[in-house]
Amino acid sequence: MSADSRIAAITARIVERSKPYREPYLARVRSAASKRVSRSVLGCGNLAHGFAVCSPSEKVALSGDEVPNLGIITSYNDMLSAHQPFETYPALIRQAAHEAGGVAQVAGGVPAMCDGVTQGQPGMELSLFSRDLIAMAAGVGLSHNMFDSTVYLGVCDKIVPGLMIAAMTFGHLPAVFIPAGPMTTGLPNDEKSRVRQLFAEGKVGRDELLEAESKSYHGPGTCTFYGTANSNQMLMEIMGFHLPGASFINPGTPLRDALTREATKRALAITALGNEFTPAGEMIDERSIVNGVVGLHATGGSTNHTMHLVAMARSAGIALTWQDISELSDIIPLLARVYPNGLADVNHFHAAGGMGYLISQLLKHGLLHDDVRTVFGQGLDAYAIDVKLGENGTVAREPAPEVSHDPKVLSTVEHPFQHSGGLKMLTGNLGKAVIKISAVKPERHVIEAPAKIFHDQSELQTAFKEGKLEGDFVAVVRFQGPKANGMPELHKLTTVLGILQDRGQTVALVTDGRMSGASGKVPSAIHMTPEAKDGGPISKIREGDIIRLDAIHGTIQVLVDAAELAARPPAEADLSENEFGMGRELFAPFRAATGSADHGASVFFH
């Protein structure tokens, strides 16, 4: 089935807008692909360095250009639960490559930080920029020009977007993304949130809170709520970078290992040395990017991707905008209820039918482009499957279930949980922002209340503890944008504002910072641009100004006369405390060079 005419029109608009970037990008990809990897003409010293630790037979193989060499980019470390399973992947990949008649080498490692560890800490101010650093680190690994194809081992928040930017930069090479899967289900997410709220109110102590958190985050694998990390996995599958069914299989299982072996062999099969050459930069196009946005809306995914997807697309010469994302949200129904948009976790989502069922539903109603290229070598309908362990430890696939195994978790296009995706762009005299309303009750989609102004999240927490947050208000938390302090996530606001809302107060948030995939039940206009550090209108709001946030009509306004607002001088903030400590001084060039949130908050694309 061809794509819905509305989706086709948005896609065509993106194609037209992207021509000044996409056409030169493809020319560079094709030029690089035409040169191929030429190990046989590398200087002898170059080549000797490149395969010094290989076996004698591998050295013979790599002396010419007839045997494909697979470059592994890994984000392994054993502190991150999601990335710890990657410790054993290189050996598994090398063995699978050998069985397929190829060679595999770890080309390089990239940093992988955990936002869960750094939330509310100074290190969080490095987090967003780590995405671009990851792309650069992967680029260093691949710069040796020893490889015919690549596999990328990454899962979490900034890691996958950074790796995709690298994959597009080296778009003349095939690229397969290999996930590690989610940890098994622990303490239910709603129970974890309940204990967090009790702790914030002083009703339980640190011991009880740590016990709850430890039962929730308890072993290897991705955190099980549907934040940015699991949104990443959804994106890689629906955009064709994963093999069908790969995203949400738990670590340490035979099926997980079988999928890794299969991905390795597929990465070797699609090199220029064979008949199925699939360079990543040509595989991904405007239709693939639109499919990613559709998946984000259908699952209620992370608001971080209003920045990441823009930067990821731009790395392939594709100009995606917030307006595109917002208009697609109006078309795409919400089909999944996964925490924080429901009580289920990603294991429940997978058990209900997972990605295969979701893709089959969207394809059935023309809400995805099926005529795309994927690493699997077929259109997207090949991803409408249920994956299982087959005979002799292989991967077996069968058609996705026609009926959801749990309608409370995965529904149908005919009977969605919500008729829109819930991610919208807001515009008005404060600039542009995004809001996620898939977990916000309809009666809270329009908020009008006086502003209370804070210059970091700790100020708001202090005001809460001192009982100063009374009545209805809109919390304006500014100087949290990428140029100010690296745009850390402001998760500590979620609990406080949620408590006040539960007490019956009308509250909302306006910020040039971000809230990520965990932004939930409190209406939050985030990623406000221009940011306060740039003198944006958010810096001109004064205490008590009435702010109107209207998620229905997509507007954000401070109700102040236009001439008066223009005449106000922008507020200033002392940001010296954000410039040093925990590595922040090393990222000063990133803060100085970054683009705005609506252009991906990237040092590469403005």
Walk me through this protein's architecture.
The chain is of the alpha/beta class and 606 residues long. The protein has three domains: 330 residues, no CATH class; 25 residues, no CATH class; 174 residues, Glucose Oxidase, domain 1. Helix content is 38%, strand content 13%. The chain is built from 22 helices and 14 strands. The chain has an eight-stranded mixed sheet. Strand 3, helix 7 and strand 4 form a beta-alpha-beta unit. Helix 4 packs across helix 11 and helix 10 crosses helix 13. The protein is globular, with a radius of gyration of 24 Å. The mean pLDDT is 94.
The protein's oligomeric status is: single chain
> Biggest β-sheet: count, sense, barrel?
8 strands, mixed
Arithmetic mean of pLDDT: 94
- The low-confidence runs, each spanning 5 or more residues with pLDDT under 50, are none
SSE-based structural type: alpha/beta
Number of domains: 3
Give the DSSP E fraction (strand runs of 2 or more residues). Answer: 5-15%
Strand order across the biggest sheet? Answer: 7-8-12-11-10-9-13-14
**DSSP E strands, number:** 14
Shape: globular
Backbone CA Rg: 24 Å
Count of separate DSSP helical elements: 22
